[in-house]
Design the sequence.
């Protein structure tokens, strides 16, 4: 495989005495802050630059100023994770000279370290081996060279070429991608981006993400590379990151005000997001600037920008304002900016082709004052049609048709406007069809049949609608048949044809196309499936009774094609064609069936409901087994039953505080279904008030029914819950949530705490199936409100956040969750009584500006205050702050929990990690102090955990300590910790094997630990971390050994 000439050009380039960028200070904000944060001693071993692959002599450079910058080997995050940087405090000096004058440390990177002779030899041998196509030897040599000096870009280039020659494109890109960090040159990053695009496989999205990263590095080096900003914005838009693309274009407009190349895509993005006002504001700012200039001086603002700006008015239906803006901008571009008198004219004579007859009749018009081309002839045809559309929508029909006729719809010659402006023909025709100018619309629709790009199904459907309105049945039929023949899946055309033939009295043809439409509809995905009979309980019951009769008849009569229809999955073939509901049931009934069916349809709903409920119980086992036909029938029945239940207003009173009192007229009136319309009702209300004042009960509790149509309310609740679960399994989240919401609002369950609990448990089960993090957050908040100050409610919130949390946009540490949990903490602090031993005797009212809200009531309706501080709540809120990188704030709550439970290992671990994580932040004052504080709590955590006899807890200690060492860049201690973790993992595996075969267990060790010994095993996580450490240090054999033993499934 041939090597990339561009990459070899870098490898064979001659050494340069000054190979560093020297941009101005305003262009290096990000890099300068990063370089100021790095001390000289910590990066001296990382800042070097190679100038030759052939072992040429490296000349030293003299760095005496702050203007020479050499990029480090890694970007900010990598440097922070690998280098223990020294703190630079304002009053701290690194050393003094003889006169005790403080020496100011140099800013920026130091002189690059000269590569050793060993590196040069390895690089030269690797290059020779690569040229000789000995890729394995070249690969081994270049890896050794990179291990000696990873800052030299040419070594990474050679490694990339070797991988590419071996056909490993992904590794080749990764090597080049890694090596680009060694040079602070935009050209390198751009070349890497181009190679990524050239070598991108099917996963274009992943490749574009890498390209965005490369472009970001270029912009960090030179923020004024607006061409790269344009590219990055376009890629973000392609990836669907519209918000990022908008921010990029806004940034471009800050540096390049009034740049229309950025303004056009920005306006398109705002239109997609529905923020028309922002798009108009940007364009108006741009227009106000350009209109102060002469049109000859303006190159960027063109007719296309006028078209875009005027189009914005249509989204807000401001057509007259759009006409006014179009006229003024067109005059300015045509050189008639001061000719504004035409704004007082109600018509568009200004844009006539000739002065006669209308323009000359205007009193102030002076022929010849402006060229004739600056009037009607100079207006682009696109803007003229838009002007006509706006006039049509404003009620000026004649002016609109005048503009549309400029398209010359009757001209179909080879050079006609039809073939160049087909989109304008369609726009004009659609606008006329919308206001029912069908004959005029057809003049522009008909020519489009001869243009391939516009002769599509929507055109013929629009033509058919116009022909039908004009009474041309022959052409209407032709257009619909054309669509049906061209598009085999178009249901709309077949439905229109069915209605058309029905109106014409051609029943057979109508049935034919309805059958085709029904067949197409059945092929749609199950998520778009609708109940066959909707909420009609009678029809659905008759449907299942017909199937039962047909099954019974099959045993009595010989099955012939002329008498018994074929059945598939319990549904007759004739019935399959009635899915949409237009085709009458085929006449296949046995003698007497029709009469029986009519009798069944007259049965009361209660009997049909009980019959369907029994049928649903019969289908339920098959539905739970996943049989598709049984699931469809079960869903149809459940939908009909629930519709009937939800249609009963007694269960859903206007005021939720109203309880269920029965099905009587009085109960319905109290529920809000009936109104007091006569004197008897008023007398009844008076009687009720007198009974209430005398203490007599209104309704006997024993008289309140506990069933509906003979089905108890608990069974109805089961139908609601299981129906929602089945829908969630099919991805129909909205309908599932709507069903559960209806159950929660029903008065028979709204006032029942056990029933409400079941509903919300089912609610978060559906959200789990749908992976709906927003809904899970809402449900967990409900549990924390209803069961306030209950530790398990807070633990449920944490569990649900962990199950479906999105690391990129987690609701766990979002602002609403943070505020809600803070209110919970304040509620506990407010409701707790003051400490009698405290010298401060302040009341809660004097401490808190607002009363904390209590949400849980006891059986007597009184709010339940907190009895003691909940440690789990404090730790939970601390972790929310920790997840948001607010480590110092998190420590406040961790220490409060520590005061209550000083030997809790989770609290000790959280405090230790907070200190260590804060030490790695740029704003930290004393890193060494913070690290030592964190390690002290980590040691206390080890002490507590070491007292446990559970293997997993001892393994957890070793793993967490190893992670801390790796975080601090102390790799050798991390390796020891991970190895101990793997050793304990082998013991865990042995115990697991014993537990699987109880006969081999001696003693009671396994039996005692079985309940908690199999919670978690960190072996694979430790093995992966160990693999990464070995790989970074070049220990390939150890890396391979760990991988084969622990990471191979």
Sequence:
């Amino acid at each position: 495989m041939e090597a990339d000439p561009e990459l070899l050009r870098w490898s064979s380039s001659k050494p340069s005495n000054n190979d560093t960028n020297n941009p101005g200070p305003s262009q290096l904000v990000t890099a300068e802050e990063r370089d100021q944060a790095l001390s000289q001693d910590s990066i001296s071993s990382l800042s070097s630059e190679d100038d030759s692959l052939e072992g040429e002599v490296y000349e030293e450079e003299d760095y005496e100023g702050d203007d020479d910058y050499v990029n480090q080997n890694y970007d900010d995050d990598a440097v922070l994770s690998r280098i223990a940087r020294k703190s630079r405090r304002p009053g701290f000096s690194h050393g003094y000279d003889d006169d005790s004058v403080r020496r100011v440390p140099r800013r920026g990177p130091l002189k690059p370290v000269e590569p050793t002779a060993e590196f040069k030899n390895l690089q030269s041998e690797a290059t020779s081996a690569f040229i000789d196509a000995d890729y394995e030897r070249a690969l081994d040599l270049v890896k050794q060279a990179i291990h000696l000096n990873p800052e030299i870009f040419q070594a990474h280039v050679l490694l990339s070429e070797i991988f590419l020659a071996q056909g490993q494109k992904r590794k080749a890109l990764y090597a080049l991608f890694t090596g680009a960090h060694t040079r602070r040159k935009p050209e390198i990053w751009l070349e890497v981006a181009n190679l990524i695009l050239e070598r991108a496989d099917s996963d274009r999205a992943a490749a574009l993400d890498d390209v965005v990263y490369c472009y970001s590095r270029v912009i960090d080096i030179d923020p004024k590379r607006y061409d790269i900003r344009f590219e990055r914005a376009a890629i973000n838009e392609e990836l669907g990151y519209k918000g990022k693309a908008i921010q990029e274009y806004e940034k471009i407009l800050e540096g390049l005000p009034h740049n229309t190349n950025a303004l056009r895509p920005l306006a398109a993005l705002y239109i997609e997001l529905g923020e028309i006002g922002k798009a108009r504001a940007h364009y108006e700012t741009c227009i106000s600037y350009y209109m102060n200039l002469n049109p000859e001086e303006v190159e960027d603002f063109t007719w296309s920008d006028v078209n875009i700006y005027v189009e914005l008015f249509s989204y807000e239906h401001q057509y007259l304002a759009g006409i006014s803006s179009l006229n003024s901008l067109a005059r300015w571009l045509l050189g008639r900016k001061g000719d504004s008198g035409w704004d007082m004219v109600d018509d568009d004579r200004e844009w006539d082709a000739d002065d006669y007859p209308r323009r000359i009749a205007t009193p102030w018009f002076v022929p010849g004052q402006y060229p004739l081309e600056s009037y009607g002839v100079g207006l682009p045809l696109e803007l003229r049609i838009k002007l006509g559309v706006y006039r049509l929508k404003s009620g000026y029909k004649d002016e609109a048709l005048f503009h549309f006729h400029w398209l010359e719809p009757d001209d179909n010659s080879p050079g006609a406007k039809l073939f160049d402006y087909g989109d304008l023909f369609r726009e004009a025709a659609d606008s006329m069809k919308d206001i029912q100018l069908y004959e005029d619309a057809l003049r522009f629709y008909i020519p489009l049949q001869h243009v391939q790009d516009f002769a599509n199904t929507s055109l013929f459907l629009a033509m058919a609608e116009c022909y039908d309105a004009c009474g041309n049945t022959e052409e209407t039929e032709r257009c619909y048949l054309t669509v049906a023949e061209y598009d085999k899946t178009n249901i709309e055309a077949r439905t229109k044809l069915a209605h058309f033939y029905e109106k014409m009295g051609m029943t057979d043809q109508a049935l034919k196309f309805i059958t085709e439409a029904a067949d197409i509809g059945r092929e749609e995905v199950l998520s778009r499936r609708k109940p066959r009979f909707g909420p009609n309980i009678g029809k659905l019951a008759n449907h299942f009774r017909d199937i039962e009769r047909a099954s019974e008849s099959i045993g009595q009569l010989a099955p012939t094609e002329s008498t018994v229809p074929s059945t598939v999955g319990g549904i007759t073939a004739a019935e399959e064609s009635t899915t949409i509901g237009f085709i009458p049931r085929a006449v296949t009934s046995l003698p007497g069936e029709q009469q029986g069916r009519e009798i069944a349809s007259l049965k009361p709903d209660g009997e049909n409901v009980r019959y369907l409920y029994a049928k649903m119980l019969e289908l339920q086992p098959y539905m739970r087994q996943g049989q598709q036909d049984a699931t469809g029938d079960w869903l149809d029945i459940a939908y009909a039953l629930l519709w009937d239940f939800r249609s009963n207003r007694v269960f859903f009173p206007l005021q939720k505080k109203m309880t269920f009192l029965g099905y009587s007229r009085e109960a319905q009136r109290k529920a809000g279904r009936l109104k007091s319309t006569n004197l008897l009702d008023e007398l009844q209300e008076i009687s009720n008030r007198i009974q209430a004042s005398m203490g007599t009960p209104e309704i006997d509790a024993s008289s309140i029914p506990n069933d509906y149509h003979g089905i108890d309310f608990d069974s109805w609740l089961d139908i609601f819950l299981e129906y929602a679960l089945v829908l969630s399994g099919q991805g129909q989240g909205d309908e599932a949530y709507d069903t559960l919401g209806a159950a929660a609002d029903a008065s028979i369950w709204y006032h029942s705490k056990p029933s409400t609990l079941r509903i919300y448990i089912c609610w978060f089960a559906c959200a789990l199936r749908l992976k709906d993090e927003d809904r899970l957050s809402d449900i967990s908040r409900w549990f924390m409100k209803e069961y306030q100050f209950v530790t398990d409610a807070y633990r449920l919130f944490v569990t649900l956040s962990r199950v479906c949390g999105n690391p990129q946009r987690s609701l766990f540490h979002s602002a609403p969750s943070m505020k809600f949990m803070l209110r919970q903490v304040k509620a506990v602090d407010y409701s707790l009584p003051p400490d009698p031993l405290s010298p401060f005797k302040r009341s809660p009212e004097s401490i808190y500006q607002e009363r904390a809200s209590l949400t849980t009531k006891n059986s007597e309706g009184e709010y339940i205050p907190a009895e003691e501080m909940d440690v789990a709540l404090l730790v939970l809120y601390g972790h929310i702050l920790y997840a948001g990188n607010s480590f110092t704030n998190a420590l406040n709550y961790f220490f409060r929990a520590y005061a209550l439970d000083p030997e809790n290992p989770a609290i000790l671990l959280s405090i230790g990690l907070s200190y260590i994580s804060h030490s790695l932040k740029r704003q930290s004052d004393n890193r060494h102090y913070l690290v030592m504080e964190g390690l002290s709590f980590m040691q206390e955590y080890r002490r507590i955990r070491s007292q446990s006899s559970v293997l997993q807890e001892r393994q957890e200690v070793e793993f967490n300590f190893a992670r801390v060492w790796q975080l601090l860049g102390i790799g050798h201690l991390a390796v020891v910790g991970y190895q101990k973790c793997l050793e304990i993992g082998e013991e865990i595996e042995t115990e697991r094997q014993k537990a699987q075969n109880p006969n081999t267990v001696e003693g009671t060790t396994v039996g005692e630990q079985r309940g908690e010994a199999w919670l978690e095993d960190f072996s694979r996580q430790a093995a992966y971390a160990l693999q990464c450490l070995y790989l970074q240090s070049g220990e390939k054999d150890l890396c391979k050994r760990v991988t084969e033993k622990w990471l191979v499934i």
User: Anything to note?
Assistant: The radius of gyration is 39 Å. Confidence is low (pLDDT under 50) at residues 1-102, 554-604, 671-697, 1000-1013. The longest helix spans residues 971-996.
